[in-house]
User: What shape does this take?
Amino acid sequence: MKRLSPVLAAVLAGALVAPVPAFAHIGPHAGLGSTASFAAGIAHPLSGLDHIAVMVAVGLWAALKGGRALWLWPVTFVGVMLVGGALGMAHVAIPFVEPGILASVVALGLLVALAVDLPVAVGAAIVGVFAVFHGHAHGSEVAENIGGIEYMAGFAVATATLHMTGIAFALAASRAQLRPAIRVAGALCVAVGAGLIGGVI
Assistant: This one.
C-alpha cells in the first residue's frame, strides 16, 4: 500500500469541505418508510448507494491493510455509527451530515483505489469520523414514538454484512492474483460518490 501523499491529503480535505446541496437524505432510500422494525433497519443501508459504497469500501480498505485493521476498522465503523445513530435519535444536531456522507463515499473510495497505507489508529479515526455521519442519518429517521433499538440493531447487522462483503471480495481477489480488482472496486466507489455529488445518480 502507498503512503498518503500531500496531493491526496489535499484532495481528501477538499472532498470534506466541498459545497454540496442539502438533502433530507441521500439516494433512493430517502423516505424509505417505517423505522420501527429490525427488518427496516436491515433494509435502510441496503437501499442507498451512498451507504453501500462506503460500507463496502471500509471492508476493502481493511483487507488491503490487513492485520488488526481487518477487524478493527469495521468494528470501529459499526460502533461509532451506533453512537451517531443514538445522537440522531436524540435530535442532537451534527453539522454537515449530508456533505459528510457524500465526502465519505469519495474519500474512502480514493483510499482504496490508491491503496493508501495509513497506521491502523489513523485509519480507525477516519472511518470513525465518517461513521458518525452515517449513523446520525440513520438515527434521525427513527419515528418519534418508538425506541428504535430494533431498527438500530438491524442497520448494524446490515452494515457489518456489507463490511464483510468488501473484505471477502478483497481476500478472494488477492488469493486469485487479482489484487488490482480491489482498487478498481475503490474507483467505482469514487464514481458513485461523484455521481451523487453531481446529481446524476
